[in-house]
Amino acid sequence: MFRHRGKNRTFRHNLRLASNLSLVAGIVNSVGVLAISTLTTNVTGHFAYFSEELITGQFTKAIPFILYILFFFLGAFVSNSFIEIAIINKKKYIHTTPMFLEIFLLVLAGFWNDWNFKVGENTNQIAYILLFSMGLQNALVTKISQSTVRTTHLTGLFTDLGIEISQYFFYRNHPNTVNLKKNIFLKLSIIVFFFAGCISGTLLFYQIGTKTLLVAATLITIALTMNNLIFYYTFTRRKFRRKKNEQRSTTRHNLKDNR
Q1: For residues 187 and 160, is the Cβ–Cβ distance under 8 A?
Q2: Cys-Cys crosslink for 62: which of 21, 53, 217, 237, Cβ 3.0 to 4.6 Å?
Q3: Are 100 and 79 in contact (CB under 8 A)?
Q4: What CATH number did the domain enclosing 41 receive?
């Protein structure tokens, strides 16, 4: 689900990518709200808060909100920079660096209390880390899926879903109906898994606090591991088939020569 790009990418690849990482985003979203009362998967609301503090002359209070926006942007910038460098150097694993960086950041935020910090006194720092990690994830997913999948926020998703469901009612007999159904199913899957992430994240937060983020990091690790296992299994099977076909063709040639 991470490796394939362009024409080699299928609906299944996007569905796996969407379900895994939207679940992670849902968990991060719930932990951000419950632990530090801050939105950490999107920046839309932060623009409103920044504008309010700016207009009322509370410039010191306005600074964190513009930094929230900046850190999400920086996450997206860094993520795509790593991807572009990997593409230029013709690396097979363009997703590896952004994903490992996201795992590291989630683990760092998950153990925040164990670093002798108190959540109430360091909410901005945790918010910066989580917003940066979600910027990383959103840029990676957008790049790999060619803007088909977005996992960290649902506003644009519900807009697209509303448009596509409306189109389905008007163009049921259109040749592109199959693709339209797939797009609708993909977006519904993202919504369901994001919601599942929010629910599970909330339940876990009341049990283990910010260490819930370790679960999100584990899910990414599992996704990367499964992706590698599937790739090597497919690669090995193709290699085995190729050898088998070569052996068959060699046997046929030998039989012909003997005749």
Answers
A1: yes
A2: 53
A3: no
A4: 1.20.1250
Task: Say what the pTM is.
Answer: 0.85
Residue 88 near residue 72, CB atoms below 8 Å: no
Give the residue numbers spanning the domain of 225: 6-236
Residue recorded with tokens 């606090």: 209
Residues lower than pLDDT 70 in the chain: 1-8, 115-122, 230-235, 237-240, 243-259
249 within domain boundaries: no
The whole-angstrom separation of Cα 39 and Cα 200 is 17
Q: Look up residue 77 and give its two tokens.
A: 């910038």
Q: What is the DSSP letter of 39?
A: -
Question: What are the angstrom distances between the C-alpha of 212 and each of 21, 24, 113, 202?
Answer: 15, 10, 12, 9
Q: Tell me the pLDDT tens digit for each residue of 83-120.
A: 999 888 877 777 889 999 999 999 999 998 776 555 45
Which tokens sit at 203?
Answer: 């339940």
Task: Report the domain count for the chain.
Answer: 1
**Euclidean distance between CA atoms 194 and 211, whole angstroms:** 19
